[in-house]
Design a protein that fits this description.
Helix content: 40-55%
Number of helices: 5
Shape: globular
Largest sheet: 4 strands, parallel
Distance between the termini: 16 Å
Radius of gyration: 14 Å
């Protein structure tokens, strides 16, 4: 099972294995407060794509397409899939205020599609 959670929300045991899926460390959050098992920078969108998107909802559809293309070329995806298959619960942790239009939402969907065949 894959869950999504903001890094600013309180970590709980039910989160299972917690992975930060951001390229940049979230502002104002200590490592202790984040309570992460892993930080997978390489699975986040490229700096160029992140900067282009700039949380503009008008670009959401194209952002999803571009990010999925980046994910197909990522060496980190297999490592992430292995973790998801090994753990009962994995929580992808993100920093975005927008809980519906962010890269981690796309990543979760992408991984679930790969796992469902």
């Amino acid at each position: 099972m894959i869950k999504l959670k903001r890094v600013y929300d309180e970590p709980v045991e039910e989160d299972g294995y917690r992975i930060l899926t951001e390229r940049l460390w979230p502002r104002g959050v200590s490592k202790e407060r984040a309570n992460l098992d892993e930080w997978m920078k390489a699975v986040a969108p490229s700096h160029e794509l992140r900067k282009w998107f700039d949380h503009d909802h008008e670009k959401w559809s194209e952002f999803k397409d571009r990010y999925r293309k980046e994910l197909f070329g990522s060496e980190t995806i297999q490592q992430l899939i292995n973790t998801v298959e090994e753990e009962d619960v994995v929580t992808f942790v993100f920093a975005s205020k927008d809980e519906e239009h962010n890269s981690t939402v796309v990543l979760k969907s992408f991984i679930e599609q790969l796992l469902s065949g």
